[in-house]
Write a structure and sequence with these properties.
Blueprint (H helix, E strand, L loop, with lengths): L19 H12 L4 H11 L6 E5 L5 H8 L3 E6 L2 H11 L15 H5 E5 L13 E10 L9 H8 L3 E12 L7 H12 L19 H8 L3 E9 L2 E3 L2 H9 L5 H6 L2 H11 L10 E3 L2 E8 L1
Parallel strand pairs: 1-2, 1-4, 2-3, 4-5
Antiparallel strand pairs: 5-9, 6-9, 7-8
Helix pairs in contact: 1-9, 2-3, 7-11
Length: 294
Amino acid sequence: MTPTLVRNQLGADASAPADAGTRARDWAEIQERMLAPLYEAVYDRMEVGAATRMLSLGCGSGLAMLVAAARGAHVTGVDSDRERLALARARLLPDAGWDDAPAHSPHPARRRARLLQDGGPAPGGAHGSPYNLITVFEPIGCAAGDSEGLVPALRSAVPLAVRGATVVLTGWGPPERCATAAVLQVAARLADTARPPRTEQGRWRPTLRDDLEDVAARAGLKPDGSGRVSCPFGYADVGSAVRGLLSTGLFDAAVRATDRSQVEKEVAEALHPYRREDGTVWMPNVFRYLVCVT
């Protein structure tokens, strides 16, 4: 699946402060699809299909779940972001709730999917069966401390899976192979202007070679293979690129240290080397995934 060049929404003001709902929509409509090649590569390798009972930790607005459900998988998503979960519900089941749908419902997705907010995942996948695949598609290794909440979440999820279940962790590839890394450095530089001085938590940092292996070790998982996937970020224009990148949350510390308009201005300037003659923005990136077993 190739990333789509997403056009700016009509009437959108790129300099206006974004509330939680706006940022969630920017994520769902612009940024989330940039990781679609990663989802597809993982599902191909894991042979995701009707026998798959998947738990998606940090499921966001549900695109990865939608792709898995289209392959016949039973999926459960967990996320703490209420706005993104609302968009996931609208995307997967626009006309009905998830958890209260009867097992004999004629709607295929209604029988195969559910969403949970906050806390730990409910026991079991489809019809109470244990999960056999746990995925973490929110890339780690790009901000200090970005895996701290993930380790306890994995420890809570593993007992809900079958023995020997597969767990897939994902992260950014080497900075030298990710054009976006140069743009993300704007976040670190602006965050350094904070007064009082910023803390390390949440601050951008270069991806380390063993980020995923470190999370696996702390969560008690055994690595069993890995892979790299090309995930270029493509945008129809600079405005869409700025909105998409800010929806990731990686610039939040920079916004707090300065203001949103300043961050948008400097991100737009940093995107200049990746702007093509037709005005589109194209940044080659490589993402990595680590396959583990419980």
